[in-house]
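Project channel, design review

CF: Before we commit to the Actinomadura physcomitrii constructs, I'd like one complete example in the thread so the newer folks can see what an input/output pair looks like. Taking Aminotransferase class I/II-fold pyridoxal phosphate-dependent enzyme.
RD: sounds good, go ahead.
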Amino acid sequence: MDLHVSLVGRKDLAGQIYRQLRAAILDGRLRAGEAAPPTRELARRLAISRNTVAVAYDRLAAEGFLESRVGAGTFVRDAGFLERERPVASPLRPRPVWDEVRVWPARMSGITWDFRAGLPDVRLFPYESWRRIMAGRLRPSALGDPAAAGDPAGLADLREAIARHVGVSRSVRAAAADVVVTSGIQQALDLVVRVLLEPGDVVAVEDPGYPPVRMLLRAAGMRVRGVPVDAEGLRVDALPDGARAVYVTPSHQFPLGMPMSLPRRRALLEWARRRDVVIVEDDYDTEYRYGGRPIEPLQSLDDGGRVLYMGTFSKIMRPVVRIGFLVAPPSLHRAFRLARYVSSWHAELPAQAALARFIDEGLLARHIRRSRREYQARHERVAGLLGTLFEGRLEVVPSAAGLHLSATLPAGTDDAAVVRRALAEGVGLFALSEFAVEGPAVPGLVFGYGAVTLPEIAEGLRRVRRAVDGPPSAE
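CF: and here is what came back for Aminotransferase class I/II-fold pyridoxal phosphate-dependent enzyme:
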């Protein structure tokens, strides 16, 4: 253990060393069997006499805290020391909002058939190609000047690559200067809040919708209002009058799955124009579309510069690759760059450089094509089995994109209980009621197929069917 001992003043130096090492042992920072710093090294670091350190060590050894081993050094003894009592509780308390925030989703264990939404199949990712590129970015010659600060908006090469990628794959109108690299969707939304909103502002979100978004907004002091959705997406006629921003997932509503219709998109843009409102468009998985006409993003329909477009690579690549992006109009470039700077400066530079190369070599597009074919096969298998295994028990919400399908249960069904019974069967999935914001929760189930293989789907869904049927009769 690299223990850092600091001395205050020059009086009783041996006593200070004794007390600080003793505290480290009692606190568990130095554990039984670990080596104490050599007396010569500690004396050099503290610029004091080695004899002074030796006096402290002798006292600790006499009290049974340390023991010397010939030729090996000085070690903490395993003497069953009782931990010191914790200091008096701090008077510091978090803001009340943090009592309401919960980590989502809750941890599940014992899962064999994983139907949780939002998880890609990490086995499909081309690790060898990524490893080769990352290794090249970690060479000393590629790292550049260690004293050079990263651009808060992201590496120029990556921003250019993202602008090209979303222009081709998503029809987004963006130049490299419009792109801010983030660590994901939630950081992008956090930047929007920092730059454009004030505590107490009303932000409208889809109901049902993605829980971490509303938790982030509430933690930032926003007043969150849920807006119902129907078969055409967000109901513009139900938007609150005082809203300063609207967060939507128009290409693939989360969690229900329907796209926002073109008339509804135009109505939302017109509503935002009349009321001077910002639209935050979350396009989290649009690359995975399996049928129908391509969905044009709100950003490409917007001619007034009111749409902020967000995306992520976590669904395409793997969740641990925490790189996302925000596309903003020129009027906000400077503010977003500064907001990124004051929050966390910049994303990891080698990963940014590697992703730029991954896109430029065509590896991202190739991976999307390969994984899209696999996910489409899973989508069709899940949709087909939901129709046959659950006939009369579930109503599937039509969807032709993404990594999940949703289905509603009859009114009054306890979908959380269904999820618990499914977990007892080894199946992980989410209840639709988990995503409710304000309106009455519609019971249902959300079936993700990103993390479950094609051969596993049928048995997993048979077990969910048993969970839907409920516990066996007591007769």
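RD: helpful, thanks. The chain has a mean pLDDT of 90.
CF: The radius of gyration is 28 Å.
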